[in-house]
Amino acid sequence: MEPALAARGLVKQYSRVRAVDGIDVDVAAGERVALLGPNGAGKTTTLLMLLGAITPDEGTVQVLGHRLPGARQAAMAEVGFAAGYLPLAERLRVGEFLDFYAKLYGVARPKQQAEEGLERFGIGYLRSALGSELSSGQKTLVSIVKATLHRPRLLVLDEPTASLDPDVADRVRSGLLTYAASEGAAILVTSHNMAEVEQLAQRVMFVRAGRVVADDTPAKVAALYGRENLEGVFLHLAREP
Amino acid sequence: MTTTEPTTRRLHGSWGRIGAVAKRHAVILLRTPHRLFDVTLWPMVDVMLFGTLAVYASRISGAGEVVISYVLGGAVLWHIVYQSSIGLSTGFLEETWTRNLLNLMVTPISELEYVTGVALFGLVKIAFGLALASLGALAAYSFELGSVGWTLLPAAAVLLVIGWAIGFFVIGLVLRFGTGAEAMAWGVLFVVMPLSGTFTPVENLPGGLQPVARLLPTTHVFTAVRTGVDGGGIDWNEIGIAAALTAVALAGGLWWLTAMLKVFRRRGYVTRYS
The pTM is what? Predict the structure, then answer.
């Protein structure tokens, strides 16, 4: 089975800052991987290069066998993306917002898919609400529904639970795990919540100053740095000069 | 979770995505009453402003109705350029205002499909704005747009495309320089309008500006419109020059937009909107 993601030698320089410095990313089909690191480590730039939104200075990206940037449309048809920091369209109702994206993805029966997606995350009652009427947690949930509408084989999530209370965050994690298991989808996620990462990810990649400094299972990465858990590893890497 | 359905994907193709973009912008417009000003209030304000000036100029010069027809013909037809350009550029700006660009960039929609959807939605705004301006001119000054004659059709078509070319240029500016450049969406039009001899022949412009004016396709369209008002039929010479210059402007606009999109992706400017 083809890998969900295969990126080689990604480099991105912003004027004098080398945001990403030769990163390789491999995500197997159905695998759940977390990309971790302190603020400014290069995680979001890496994600955006993997999604074709930023052109790398060097390196290659293949998404589900589609080489970017040439096959971007075919690749994005099989990828779902959600980010905790992206707002929802304020003047659209949730149902309209999901219907719009379902049509962009070419989903058959977009209304039915939107309905199923809302129920999957327990927010069917929001279908008629305007984006401006939602709490930040509800907006995040709707954006995750949007990301899974077309049943993508790869989910890319940038800090998906950043603004959620523990209850809603737990529902999101459960929903994502159920989705990944039932659809055989791969997940690439960034998060600053290490407990969440230990629950979600089978493998973690720690990034620091634009380079991958550790890449293994959460337990092995913690052991590598002589820490009890990923939180300890994170603090060690963030504070190390 | 439902897993029994064999596939949820069906290739609606480009038209499904184009239609979705057009519908979304239409819904947002209807839910944002102040943005309806562009298609309701401004056409009427323009007609009243320029109509009043034309009536006054007509009376003091003794030139008669033809002055009113020149000025109001120009004012009403200018709204094709205005709505066409503003529809495209503010359609794109909507994505920057709502920080929706990244959401769109990670879907299968192509740049061409997106622009086509916004332009399609813009056609509705043009029809609405033009209808209101025409009715306003008829009601207030008894000016019939039909008095331009058959020139109206090729002139409208060329003005529509010129508006798109300006819209592409403005979107390119916003991609490159960020939302600080959004004032150009309106600013470019305010520069082009007086240079185009929209209301009077370009011979009335200061001498140094006349060669510049003659390089603009809009100038040749409005010259043809005045020929039509004078009963001279379709001035194919001026329409032909306008069409050729419009083709150049459109190609230039598309080149600029494509080049700025590459810069946008290369420099990671999408993070400005996320």
Answer: 0.89
